[in-house]
Amino acid sequence: MVDRTSGVPAFRQVAADLRERIAAGQYTPGSRLPSERELVDTYGVSRPTIRDAVNMLRAEGIVTAEHGRGAFMADAAARGWTPSSSVKIRFEPADDRVAECLGIQAGDEVTARDRVMRANGLVVQLAASRLPRDLTHGNAIEQIDTGIPVVTVTRIAHGKDRPLEMNDMVLPADRFELSYEWPAD
Q1: What is the pTM assigned to this prediction?
Q2: For residue 142, which of 105, 181, 91 has the smallest C-alpha distance?
Q3: Is residue 150 part of a domain?
Q4: Which of 24, 66, 165, 166 has CA atoms 20 to 30 A from the CA of 118?
Q5: Which of 60, 88, 93, 71 is nearest to 27 (CA)?
Q6: Where does residue 155 fall: left (phi above 0), alpha (psi -120 to 50 degrees), or beta otherwise?
């Protein structure tokens, strides 16, 4: 089924054919794609070629992959699955690999975003993003979920002759209670 004389890489041909089958309704949302072995037999290519094709479809959001279970059509919610996710945001120094990928210096602060996507409680994807801190500072990625009232407090720490630190705190009102006492002199 793969045309080795076309000049198009085999994995791209396999991915294109799978896309056509998906568009034709052969595979429906939430359904499992054939196993690697079955796809190897169908297309007459190697397992790495099949993996590359499936990874391409995964990168496009067409399928999800579960280690040891196979590849599944995306949009599991359409099959009665309940999607959920969790996100953790933190700041950390860039290691050598992150620095090289982002074109920054090792040790520069980055925003780390780790996401876990689930369907019916089953983990279907892990995603770890690293973003240059100067691009995320003050943006929505660093903010609390929308819909929660917040209190914003700015503190400035002063030294003998100059400010030493400015600290902006955003406190979700559902988790904090502020109480201040002022002397009446």
Answers
A1: 0.41
A2: 91
A3: yes
A4: 24
A5: 71
A6: beta
